Amino acid sequence: MALPTIPIIPSSGGCSAGSCGSSATQMSGMSDDIRRRVQDHPCYSEEAHHHFARMHAAVAPACNIQCHYCNRKYDCANESRPGVVSELLTPDQAIKKTLAVAAAIPQMSVLGIAGPGDPLANPERTFATFRALAEKAPDIKLCVSTNGLALPEHVEELAKHNIDHVTITINCLDPEVGAKIYPWIFWKNKRIFGKEAAAILIEQQQKGLEMLVAKGVLVKVNSVMIPGVNDEHLKEVSKVVKAKGAFLHNVMPLIAEAEHGTFYGVMGQRSPSPEELKNLQDACEGDMNMMRHCRQCRADAVGLLGEDRGAEFTMDKVEAMNFDEDFLAEAMARRVALRDKVAAEREAKHAKAHAPQLPGQAVITLHRPQKSALAGRPVLMAVAAKGGLINEHFGHAREFLVYEVTATGAKLIGHRKTELYCSGDDSCGEAESVLSRTLRALAGCEVVLCSKIGYEPWGKLEAAGIQPNGEHPMEEIEPACIAVWHEMLKAGKLAPKTESKVA
Ligand code: CLF
Ligand code: SF4
Questions:
Q1: What's the pTM?
Q2: CA torsion 179→181→187→189, rounded to 10°?
């Protein structure tokens, strides 16, 4: 099947730092080749994550190392939140499921293999899946996430299959630190423990990174932030991987719950707070592009980041489908048409953001800083949105995107997960406690933007020092946040804070 031509979204040249979101900033210094490779990848481009979906094929059960944050009954913490993989797939099943998902979800642009073990500890299954999909759905990008131990021996094979997005989880450069994260590795038919094991793993990761960069493969580095173990050390990791040519660094919070049965969970190792995570990401950012929109998804995730449509594609449903040539060609044509449409919309948006200003024209709707606004302080705003638009009811939101809004623009800094507050049944006795948990999840935010909100949560948010705002339904996130920031400035609410309003 012939590979369709991919239109390139033009560089947002002239974009001042942060003035149209971190993704645009990230894209502005790139060559056309790199832009083409990342513009539709929901993990490598923040802007793309509003529009494009990924799917993980869970074909890799085994792992060649042990991480203290992992219990494989609960999935791969390299790339997933805790949760069992519902179905472990054979390569044949994975190929069918991928084609079924790519036919039903035209936003799907990437197939990743991220577990539940390590893809390169299961090379036959991993490469059999990639090989067949490269032939049957050549427009889908192939992506792999690995702990790096077996990476150097597979670099040639990865390059041969045109897999140009590789994630390596690198948690340390120092074996002393590594020994606190990895109790053992399985290396050359032997189990090796402690510092010696960590030293081998680190050497293999760094060698693999250098080899991939030399081949022109785009490398993202994931790091798990473990307070008191590697948090300070990750600044050095960020500098080194950037110097070696990594494209993006994704610092993720440790997930450690006793019920997951992981070493850290059982031992009570704490996870970082959202503020600690942001501070570390900010400290690393000076040296490289940081990913802020990771959802730590499952090794069998399906759909846009932050949603899971896996239940729609169980193998019994997939096996009943017919995948003839016409079916595959039509599905690919739908995907390509959607990508063209999104590219045109994004181009129009960038053109608008960088259009010359007419005399007397209001500037507040553009993502552009105003000199008069420079006195205002940064404000965290939580947004209930999908597809880049503020289109979610407060009570229906399963997550809120968190933006830091300043005089220079709105920048995504993370997300907060919530439980569904509103099930449509107003008498739900659970509502109170779920709402309380949502309020806790939004700690530190001063504004919540959503399409609609009920009377009761409105009052509770206000009492917690968070201003609800339903004035921008169906608007794009960044201009709406900036408009709210300017309203706050005008109302005199942006004087420097002396203490946090929210506990
Ligand atoms: Fe999957 Fe990873 Fe590829 Fe993305 S996920 S293999 S790069 S397609 Fe993305 Fe999920 Fe975060 Fe991974 S949000 S956990 S970074
Ligand atoms: Fe678990 Fe992934 Fe670590 Fe292997 S590399 S132990 S699957 S988190």
A1: 0.83
A2: 100
